[in-house]
Amino acid sequence: MEAGSSSTTTPYIDQDVDMVPSDENQQQTDDLIAQWTAMTFEDSAIPTLVQKVLSNEQEDYHYGLIGIRKLLSKEDNPPIQPIIDAGVVPRLIQLISPLSPKKVQFEAAWCLTNICSGTTQQTRYVIEKGALAAFLSLLRSDDLEVVEQSVWGLGNIAGDNAQFRDLILQQNGAEELVKVLSKATSLSLKRNGAWALSNLCRGKPAPPFALVYKAIPQFCELLTVETDTQTLVDVAWGLSYLTDSNEGINSVLSYNIVPKLIEFLSHTDLALVTPCLRTIGNIISGNDEQTSVVLREKNFIPELFKLADNKKKGIRREAFWTLSNITAGTPIQFEAIMGNPVYVEKLIYAAKNDDDKIKKEAIWALSNSTATCTPAQIIRILDNGVFGCLIDLLDEHNARNLLVALQGIENCLKWGEQFNIKDENGTNRFVAELENRGGIDKIEALQAHQSHDVYEKAVKILETYFAGEEMEEQE
C-alpha cells in the first residue's frame, strides 16, 4: 500500500488482525521486520513514515513505526520535534494498546521512549497525550520485550524532573516496577528496572516516602543477591536517595544491609563504591543509634580511611564528609576516629593540603571533634595536634572554612575552662597554646574580615577569653 493511500483522519487499530497468526504468516512477518530493520532512513522520509503509521494496514504502520524508531534512535540530533510536529504521537500511544500485536506495541513504545529522552517540553507533550497510563499498562504484558521497553520509557520520564516523577508515583508506578523487578530474570530487564525504580526515588524535593518505601525491600534484596555491577550501581543509588530521610534510614536498617554496603566499599568499580559510601554516609548522618549500627561493624572505619586516600576526588570528599558526621557524634563514636593517631594525622593533612572541597570536609571533621568531649579527649585534641591545626587554618582564605575553624577553637577554649585544664602557670592550656602559635594575632586580624560572620566570631572569642589581657595592655 502506497504512502498516503489512507484518507482516515482518526486512525484506528484494525481489530480484525489475526492476533495468533499461522507459522507461515509469522515467518513472513518476521522476514519483513528483519528487512525493514536493516534499512537506513533519512529525516526526509518523516512525512511518508508518518502516513504509514496513520494507515489502518498493519504492514504499513509496522513499517512506519520501525522507520520512525530508527530515526529517533540516532545518536546525533534525532528528529524528535519534527516527529512531534507531524502529529503522530497520539497514534503511537494508540498503537501500544492491548489490541495491537506485541511487536507493534514494542516498536510504538520504543518510539515514545526515545521522544521522552528529549526536552522537558517534549516529554510533557507525550505525557499530556496519555503516555503514562499506556506505559504502566504495558508493565503487565506477558511479552518481556514490551515490558522492558515500557520500563525504559517510565525511567526516562521519571528522570526528567520531580513533577513527572510524582505523576508516575501517584499512579502506583513504584509498586508496579517493584513487581516487574521481583520477577525479572533477564539481565537487561533487571538493569533497566533498577535504573527506572531508582529514578522514581531521586530528585528534589524528595518524593513522598509513602509512595516509594516499597522499593526498599526490593533494592535490599538485589543488593544482597545480584552480581551484575551495573544493576548494583542503580540499586545502591536508589538506597542513597531513600536514606535521605530518618524514616528511610530506619527502613533500610531493618533489612540488615549495612554489612553488604561496607563490603562493596572495597569493590574495584568506583561507580559502585560511590553510592554505597553515600548511603552509609546518610545513615551515619542520622541519629546516634543509627550511626552506631554502622560503627559496630569492625571493618568499617579501616575501609573508610582507605577511601580517604583514594585518587578520585569525589570518593575522598564522600569519605571525609562521612568522617565529619562521625566526629560530630557521641564521645564513644568520636573515639573510633580521634582515638587513633594515624587517622588524626590523615585528617590534619587533608585539612591543610587536599583539594578545596575535600579540605572543607576535613576541617568540619576536626572542628566537629571538639564539640562534645570528655576531659581526656579534649586534652588529646591539644596533644595530638588538632588544636594546633585549627590555629594554622586561621590563614585560610575561604570564609566558611575560617568560621568552622574558629568554632573549633572556641569549643576548645570553652572546654579548657570548664574542665579546668591548666598549665604550670595556672593558665588555660588552650589559651596558652593559642598565644604561643600566634593565634591571638590572627584572630585579632580577622576583626577586619569582610565576612560579618567571621568578624562576629572573632570578636566573641577575643571578648570572652582575652578581654582582660587587652585591658592590661591599655593600662
CATH architecture heading of the largest domain? Alpha Horseshoe
Class inferred from helices and paired strands: mainly alpha
Main sheet overview? none
**Helicity level, as a percent range?**
55-70%
Beta-strand segment tally: 0
The CATH class of the largest domain turns out to be Mainly Alpha
Please work out how many helical segments DSSP would assign.
31
Please tell me the total number of domains: 4
Question: Whole-Å distance between the termini?
Answer: 106 Å
Provide the low-confidence segments as ranges. Answer: 1-20, 470-475
Radius of gyration: 31 Å
Task: State the fourth-level CATH superfamily of the largest domain.
Answer: Leucine-rich Repeat Variant
The CATH topology of the largest domain, please? Leucine-rich Repeat Variant
Please supply descriptive tags for the structure shown above.
475 residues; mainly alpha; disordered C terminus; Leucine-rich Repeat Variant
What does the model show?
- The structure is a single chain.
- The chain has 475 residues and is mainly alpha-helical.
- Helices cover 69% and strands 0% of the residues.
- It contains 31 helices and no strands.
- Helix 1 packs parallel to helix 3, helix 9 runs parallel beside helix 12 and helix 18 packs parallel to helix 21.
